[in-house]
């Protein structure tokens, strides 16, 4: 996924000492992370709901960015049109519920992602890519795209791209689960991860009560992609993310209607990050060098096959970007 904002907010820097939000005074290990709407590709573009980074909590495990979108009617419209842009120090996870997106990158990868398929792009020291709804696209676009921060020992490694069409599934009376990343209930995804984590798409049937096992050492969150649901009895409103804290061995997901949700989790990511625009680094200088290299045509390569200009990097703020932790 991409951050195409021309003036990225300071809050997209991951940081701060832990603090209670007061959202759940009787259960301090949970928080409801309300999303903000962001235009993807300009003021006339489709809107996405950004739940990470959030005002009080910037990460869940190594997951540091989460956009959900749709179901959006794009009949007769351009849909998703994101020009070539750079990334460093992260993995992008693209997962669709409806529609299709055409991916092209500077490694020469060309791949259409469709529902039930996982696009996983690893930036390492640098990569560039574009994302487009193709000509003759479906009338509806519906999905989620996320970033995973790479740890220090891997963040300057080689870039690569993987497309997975055969992911493990769990079928229960209450619903259906697809494991995108990591392992859940003994089902392990083939996707490459650099830190212990999990990501799973959950499809609940009407009236479904689905109990999922969790790693107690992980922190977890549930992102509502469709109708509202509850996680251990606590509301997860449409488009919002419910942070569940650490130490749980299971979670009960319930909904009176058919709905979709994303479970994410992982070991708390203790490295301090600077996350600005489409870059995840450790220092202001990391970000400054990446921006300069992108604007000078260095490091990131070229996305061939895209008809149009690349996305220019925004101006850096007037104050140095500070490395910060996973909560505010």
TrEMBL record:
Keywords, sorted A to Z: Iron, Metal-binding
Disordered: region residues: 1-30
Gene Ontology molecular function terms on file: metal ion binding
Pfam families given in the database record: Pirin, Pirin_C
Gene3D superfamilies: Jelly Rolls (2.60.120.10)
Signal peptide coordinates: none
Nucleus among keywords: no
Matching InterPro entries: Pirin, Pirin_C_dom, Pirin_N_dom, RmlC-like_jellyroll, RmlC_Cupin_sf
Binding-site residues, Fe cation: 85, 87, 129, 131
UniProt remark on cofactor binding: Binds 1 Fe cation per subunit.
Sequence ranges assigned to domain Pirin C-terminal in this UniProt record: 200-298
CC cofactor: Fe cation
Annotated Pirin N-terminal domain residues: 48-148
Similarity field: Belongs to the pirin family.
Name this protein carries in UniProt: Pirin
Native organism: Streptomyces oceani
